């Protein structure tokens, strides 16, 4: 069932929500909860530093409640009322916390992290990725967020992401163990603000939004005689280690995109090709936390030599239908449907 809120894009069905998961960012994976997550969720939210800063997590936390929350999340997903995701670090698959969208009269984003993972930018990175999914794929127009006045960390995250002040409310939060009135700050972010912030277009970029540098890179979809596409897995000594990507790299000031790609394919894979063998088919424009990436993708079917890893990467030839089975950097993911249509 699609979301019924005012739509900016054609929203995905719930089945398509699931097909688009997990959501990947530079360091994180946002995935659906699994039964095993209860083992670390329960002690994490039993910490009052976590539970008392939320409006829905009870304190003290009842034993076994994490498993119940996971089951409820499945029900809410099937009904289209909430999308709850685990925030997981890609490097070691450790669960850091939970983030979710809740679809009532307003669409609200909520999140928490275990205290040992605070002050690393994880909440900002996770929320930015989920907001992109909400605005670009779910047809959401406006998202609100709430935080208690004393929750300075969460308010800072919302400010960094471009939320703007909406109102203050006094509400009763019985989940805190007793009924009490607490002041809650409500902030709001809309689709146009988000698109402006992430595309570099003129307009409001959010309160105190730091300008980001743009990196110009280039990539190749090498296609063999069987219609398979070559992916390279980033080695452990590089950012976004373990993710699969199209071979390529940065374009220098002295290079054309084609010249840069020819050089990168030689350096990375020890193969030779020419400009006439490169056909531009798509481009990625994606805002990472520290930079904005602009990356054209070229299809290449003709080259000399056999691709061999020269920089410690792992290579795999993948059928187009299976490309989404391989976790990729966020910038690469939107290129997959375009490439599958071509092939």
Rough shape?
elongated
H/E series, N to C? HEEHHHEEEHEHEEHEEEEHEEEH
Helix content: 25-40%
Major sheet: arrangement of strands: 1-2-3-4-5-6-8-7
Strand content: 25-35%
**Sheet with most strands:** 8 strands, mixed
* Tally of strands: 15
Q: What class do helices, strands and sheet pairing give?
A: alpha+beta
Question: Mean pLDDT, as a whole number?
Answer: 83
> Which ranges are low-confidence, i.e. pLDDT below 50, for 5 or more consecutive residues?
1-10, 177-183, 199-211
Helical run tally? 9
End-to-end distance, in Å?
30 Å
Radius of gyration: 22 Å
Describe the structure.
With 343 residues, the protein is of the alpha+beta class. It contains 9 helices and 15 strands. It has helices at residues 14-19, 38-45, 48-51, 65-79, 122-137, 152-160, 191-199, 257-269, 335-342; strands at 23-24, 28-31, 82-89, 95-103, 107-113, 142-148, 164-172, 181-190, 213-222, 229-233, 244-245, 248-250, 278-287, 291-300, 314-318. The strands form 3 sheets. Strands 1-2-3-4-5-6-8-7 form an 8-stranded mixed β-sheet, with helices on both faces. It has a 4-stranded mixed β-sheet with strand order 12-9-14-13, sandwiched between helices. Mean pLDDT is 83; it is low at 1-10, 177-183 and 199-211.
Summarize the structure.
The protein is α+β, with helices and mostly antiparallel strands. It is built from 9 helices and 15 strands.
């Amino acid at each position: 069932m699609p979301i019924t809120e005012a739509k900016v894009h054609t929203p995905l069905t719930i089945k398509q929500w699931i097909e688009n998961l997990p959501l990947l960012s530079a360091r994180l994976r946002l995935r659906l909860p699994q039964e095993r997550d209860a083992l670390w969720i329960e002690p994490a939210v039993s910490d009052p530093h976590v539970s008392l800063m939320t409006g829905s997590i009870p304190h003290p936390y009842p034993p076994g409640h994490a498993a119940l929350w996971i089951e409820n999340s499945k029900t809410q997903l099937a009904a289209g009322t909430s999308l709850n995701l685990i925030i997981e670090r890609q490097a070691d698959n450790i669960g850091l916390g939970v983030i979710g969208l809740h679809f009532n009269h307003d669409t609200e984003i909520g999140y928490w992290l275990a205290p040992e993972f605070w002050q690393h930018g994880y909440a900002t990175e996770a929320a930015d990725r989920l907001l992109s999914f909400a605005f670009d794929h779910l047809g959401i127009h406006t998202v609100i967020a709430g935080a208690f006045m004393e929750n300075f960390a969460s308010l800072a995250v919302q400010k960094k992401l471009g939320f703007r002040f909406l109102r203050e409310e006094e509400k009763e939060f019985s989940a805190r163990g007793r009924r009490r009135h607490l002041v809650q700050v409500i902030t709001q972010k809309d689709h146009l603000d988000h698109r402006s912030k992430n595309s570099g277009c003129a307009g409001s970029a959010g309160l105190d939004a730091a300008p980001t540098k743009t990196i110009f890179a280039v990539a190749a979809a090498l296609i063999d005689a069987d219609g398979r596409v070559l992916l390279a897995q980033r080695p452990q000594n590089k950012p976004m280690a373990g993710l699969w990507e199209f071979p390529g790299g940065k374009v220098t000031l002295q290079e054309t995109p084609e010249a840069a790609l020819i050089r990168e394919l030689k350096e990375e894979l020890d193969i030779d090709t020419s400009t006439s063998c490169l056909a531009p088919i798509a481009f990625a424009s994606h805002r990472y936390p520290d930079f904005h990436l602009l990356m054209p993708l070229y299809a290449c079917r003709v080259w000399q030599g056999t691709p061999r890893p020269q920089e410690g990467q792992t290579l795999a030839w993948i059928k187009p239908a299976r490309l989404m089975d391989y976790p990729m950097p966020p910038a690469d993911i939107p290129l997959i449907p375009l490439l599958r249509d071509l092939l």
